[in-house]
Design a protein that fits this description.
This protein has 340 residues and is α+β, with helices and mostly antiparallel strands. It is built from 11 helices and 12 strands. A 6-stranded mixed sheet has the order 8-10-5-11-9-12, sandwiched between helices. Strands 1-4-2-3 form a 4-stranded mixed sheet, covered by helices on one side. A two-stranded antiparallel sheet has the order 6-7. Strand 6 and strand 7 form a beta hairpin.
């Protein structure tokens, strides 16, 4: 006679985990959540979001990617919840939305209650910080899909905005200035290349230039830009690019009209030291680095020139990194000062 446990699925652990998570998820419920933990579907009362004349829901889904392999190897799971929540929230915030609720999907070789609890607690903490309810999620134990120690974490966020606030400050125009906001490191992109350049054998090494171990530098959480985006919208920002996979060239191109190009001076900021370490250890050309990584700029805002002064007051860490010019025959994003 075969049992589910012999197939690698541990129902007793699942029940223990559910009980542990009940209290954690309850702390991140918010006033709009109507269903308790264990319901087949999460329920959210849209009226709890406030008064809207013509509300538009904005949704996004993403994953952390192979950053989870570093966390698994080092046994460090505390910040991964921040990674997935902030990544997803940034993606809807650049559309002008504020988050309402979040769901997580966690798939593992073995759903160890300790690991699952730490991961979901991180998600709950990040949701609370973003003013977002953790509506529910799923934990899947799949030993036939994930090797021992392996797992994946994905997230889904839904936000809301008034329809008449879409592009309320107008479309990006010729002469507009590009402001960049610093990243905290790789965020959640480029880890397949980073792990090849910086293999596991050196993750425990302390790097004086980084001021920490290489592993800790690689696990630095993906930051949230929610407050900064809302502040910049208030002073006239016309568009935002969340710099994720594809770096500056691909993501900035997504938010500018076809007839314009973004001219970005890469000498306008100093990339965090971790990027230099990746480039040198992996012998990676600089142009490839800018195609893969955010290189120290995690968010780009497009503003009219007359709004620059007020925008710097609103978000002092922002730095002017470029401008919009006529496209002509050139690329949509042109990186100036890039040397090999």
């Amino acid at each position: 006679m075969a049992t589910y446990a012999e197939a690698g699925i541990h129902l007793d652990d699942a029940r223990k985990t559910t009980e542990r998570l009940r209290e954690i998820v309850t702390r991140a419920r918010g006033t709009g959540v109507l269903a308790d933990v264990g319901a087949f579907g999460g329920m959210f009362r849209l009226g709890a979001a406030g008064e809207f004349h013509d509300p538009v829901l904005v949704a996004s889904a993403d994953g952390i990617g192979t950053k989870v392999k570093i966390a698994s190897a080092l046994g460090r799971y505390e910040t991964l919840g921040m990674d997935i929540v902030n990544h997803c929230v940034n993606d809807i915030a650049v559309q002008g939305a504020r988050p309402l609720f979040f769901l997580d999907y966690l798939a593992l070789h073995r759903a160890d209650p300790e690991v699952v609890t730490v991961l979901v607690a991180g998600v709950a903490e990040a949701c609370t910080a973003a003013g977002c309810s953790l509506l529910g999620g799923e934990t899947a134990e799949m030993p036939d899909v994930y090797p021992p120690g392996e797992f994946d974490l994905a997230g889904f966020v839904v936000g809301v905005m008034e329809r008449d606030r879409i592009a309320a400050n107008g479309q990006p125009a010729k002469g507009d200035v590009l402001l960049g906001l610093p990243s905290t490191g790789l965020h959640t992109n480029g880890y397949s290349l980073a792990r090849r350049a910086l293999p596991p054998g050196i993750w425990a090494d302390f790097d004086p230039e980084l001021g920490t171990t290489i592993g800790d530098a690689l696990l630095t959480p993906h930051r949230s830009y929610l407050a900064e985006i809302q502040a910049l919208i208030g002073v006239g920002a016309r568009g935002f690019a969340h710099i994720t996979g594809g770096g500056l060239p691909e993501n900035v191109a997504r938010v500018i009209p076809d007839e314009l190009a973004a001219e970005i001076d890469v000498a306008s900021w100093e990339p965090p030291a971790i990027f230099g370490r990746i480039a040198s250890e992996g012998s990676i050309p600089l142009d490839e680095m800018y195609q893969v990584f955010n290189m120290g700029i995690g968010l780009v805002a497009v503003l009219p020139t007359e709004s620059i002064g007020t925008s710097i007051v609103a978000v002092p860490e922002a730095v002017a990194i470029g401008r919009l010019i006529p496209r002509g025959e050139g690329d949509a994003v042109q990186l100036l000062g890039l040397t090999t």
